[in-house]
Amino acid sequence: MGNTMIRVAHIITRFHGAGGAKNTLFTCAGLDKNRYEVDLVVGRSADRWRAEGAGVNWVQIDSMVRAIHPLQDARSANALLRLIRERRYHIVHTHLAKAGMLGRWAARRAGTPIIIHTVHGATFSPAQSRLSNALYLMLERRAAKWTDVMISVGDDLRRRYLAAGVGRPEQYVIIHSGMDLSAFLQAGREKAARGRLIRAELGLSEQDFVAGYVAALEWRKGHHHIVEAARRLRPRYPQLHFLFVGEGFDRPRIEALVNEAGLGDRIHFTGYRTDVADVMAAFDVKLFASNREGLPQVLVQAAAVGLPVIAFEAEGVCELVHDGVNGYHLAYGDVNGMVERLEHFILHPEQAAAMGARGPALVDDRWQIATMQRKTIELYETLLQHKFAS
Questions:
Q1: What is the pLDDT of residues 266-312, one digit of tens each?
Q2: What are the chain's domains?
Q3: 3 state DSSP class of 235
Q4: CA 224 to CA 234: how far, in whole Å?
Q5: At what angle do helices 251-260 and 223-233 cross, to 10 degrees?
Q6: For the chain, how many helices (H) and strands (E)?
Q7: Where in 126-176 does DSSP place strands (E)?
Q8: For 112-154, what is each residue's pLDDT tens digit?
Q9: Which of 78, 97, 77, 81 is nearest to 89 (CA)?
Q10: What is the value of pTM for the model shown?
């Protein structure tokens, strides 16, 4: 397209500190502003300050919310259609479920030349009702027909979507989520010293065995499964403690569950932390219990720190957790398996440490921000050349 400025809209439902939002922001920031004019279009729930310095135009649509709301969704769809028609984007790139559905519908109606959707995580899962899964699958299949390219953040996620009949194999491109792992790799190199400081801050000793979970305090993240595992193990292992790292709207519900189980002295809520790498250095093992993901960034981070992992098999887990090598993966909701693996690590801490030490070698260039940005730009330029070839 010569020297023409390429107008791009990145549309995302919620824009906070979660992986999908970070991925989107890094992608926007990596686009050459002499070549691309970028609008970041967000829903009602968004932190504007996070986009500062990324070189984007901030556009907020307050009617776009995460929950299904027919009236608000209709307003959002019309607002997006007006915006896309007015701005005449060359590329509309959507993220997350709601923005993915509404944004692609509006882009198709507006005649946008290139429509891209990034699949950050599955919208359907075994933990959801059959009706909910059927609805999301119907919408995903329909929206895939309006899409030029589906970017999957992992191969496991791509396979699951294809198996469910969402899109065609040739539509998919894998671009792993980029992240800054330098703090986590450094924390792994200084694990003993950094972990000791965090444990002292939280009132834990060096003799305690600490199992940690870094995740938003939302029910779908599966904290209740870990609470059940803690309840079963507590009588036998007084040295076992759990750290729940993060914040979320279900914190009161999860705290109530912990208190009802009499585990207030064993499960510790750290709240939101800006020093997650150091907090991970205090773990003996990293737990993962979410019912659906795309490519869990916390597992890449755990590998960088050198932690063994016990994880339920959400999308992407097998790409980071090699069973019996740097941890174990279990069927979703297999609390018995989690209890058995945790008990094994408690009784054989040297094996846990040896498995964790294999993690850093699994962290390669796929997870670098620069790699994600380069692959995205290459995709854009290939599509532009194809669509606008003279």
A1: 999 999 999 999 999 999 999 999 887 656 889 999 999 999 999 99
A2: 6-178+368-387 (3.40.50.2000), 182-365 (3.40.50.2000)
A3: coil
A4: 15
A5: 20
A6: 15, 13
A7: 149-152, 172-174
A8: 999 999 999 888 876 677 888 888 899 999 999 999 999 999 8
A9: 81
A10: 0.86
